Amino acid sequence: MTFVVPFGPQHPALKEPEYFRFEVKGEEIIDLNVRLGYIHRGIERALQERSYLHNIYLAERICGICNVAHTTAYCQTIEQLANIEVPDRARFIRTILCELERIHSHLLWAGVAAHEIGFNTLFMFFWRDRELVLDLKEMISGNRQISASNTLGGVRRDVKPEYVPTMLRVLNKLEKETKYYIDVCTSDRTILARCMGVGVLTKEDAIKLCIVGPTTRASGVDVDIRRDDPYAAYDEISFKVIIEREGDVLAKVIVRLREILESIRIIRQALKALPRGPLRTKVAPKIEPNEALGRIEAPRGELLYYAISNGTDKPERIRVRPPTYANIPSFKPMFVGGTIAEIPIVMASIDPCFACTDRVTLVDSHTGKARVVSFDELRGRRK
Amino acid sequence: MGLVSFFRRKSPWLLHFDTGGCNGCSIEVVATIIPRHDIERFGMQVRGSPRHADILVVTGPITKQAKDRIIRIYEQMPEPKMVVAVGSCPASGCVFYDCYNVVGPLDKFIPVNAYVPGCPPKPEAIIFALVKALEKV
Q1: Residue-averaged pLDDT of chain A
Q2: Which of residues 100-159 of A touch B (CB under 8 A)?
Q3: Which CATH number, 2.60.120.10, 3.40.50.10350, 3.40.50.300, 1.10.645.10, labels domain A52-324?
Q4: Of chain A residues 219-238, which have a CB less than 8 A from chain B?
Q5: What is the pTM for the complete model shown?
Q6: Opening angle at CA A342, ends B13 and A263, nearest 5
Q7: Interface pTM (ipTM) of the complex?
């Protein structure tokens, strides 16, 4: 006898409204179903109705967490459309901002994951250090979250020479803390008990389902757009692509934490090699008919923009494929066979960002409903 | 001030619901509970259930899908209840004002006690609005 456990749309695990239907037999999960679309806003349509310059602000608000990734991908695609070269200094500043965002996003995720396994102290530690990164972002771009720093043809704000010592000091502190966190996550018994061997995604499944980003790198697949298809200034910077073999939640934690260390190295190199020169080139408001595809490595994986121009100041069509959308199929191999208690941490393990994903609605049909557990009952179980 | 409202002011519990935002405000709402900002100084806690909550914190423009849910969550909360709209989106729609799936500002559907402008507002601003809202109890 199986019964159905609904999860969402307002639920304690994630801050975003999504609905999951888990079919369980006793404690074991037999099947699951995802219903998206609670925060579908119609952004792709709105992108077609605004001018290229207005669209930066809209693309930025597809996702507040990875806003620099979205604007970088958007600006890069439109620059390709209009055949514009970005000044060197702007390319390096974009790299610095992208990496700062990766650090803050990974720390945010690590905190959420710690919260999901009931380790609230660690959550507070991660988020305390995340504030340091947000301070740097605020110093460079003037805002903590939505940076509004990228623009067509370059960046809007400079990394002034007087910022560099502060940045290096904060990065040193972060590096020390991150090393300590890696130590904690690989040795703490609570974390090992909750994460090791849980929610395993095998390498075969990861390749078959086209999973992207840290989720696939934790399963041993060697992909990283920063290295495979360099953008911004990544071709002039040396860094390692972090791979783990196990594919469980622990591997996903370790991959993200080690990526923070790599990001710190990248920022140090970029600050050292920061060339002099202008920040932006002029871009004409109208763009000749053309099409372009841009992809970057957002904190959650490959982010893809496709744009068609038609000679006016508005795009004909812009398509956005965010990383979480590509990662949703991985839920099934990770959940099926697991237990109800694993739901929050495994769900959090792909670092889902539904604000990005919900421009598309994914509907899956299923039958076999037996009993519905109320939200309160489910919450009572989680307390 | 009566005894009941005195105690109500001392430990209001929050419920956060994202009605379609970009996550920017959502993480700033979560950032209010971390050591640097620490809203537990005011006795506030973020809880998971509408039945425990005194203050509903709403982020994001109201989408067609989320409209019914936000009304239902509001109805499930016990009296007296308050609503704080965080960010420009629930106040006006922000950049999403003319998107086809966005049905309008939050105050069209449920009463709102305080607005926090900004995209996204800083955690300090959110705490200020919550404390202001409490003064009305």
Answers
A1: 84
A2: 108, 124, 127-128, 131, 144-146
A3: 1.10.645.10
A4: none
A5: 0.89
A6: 85
A7: 0.89
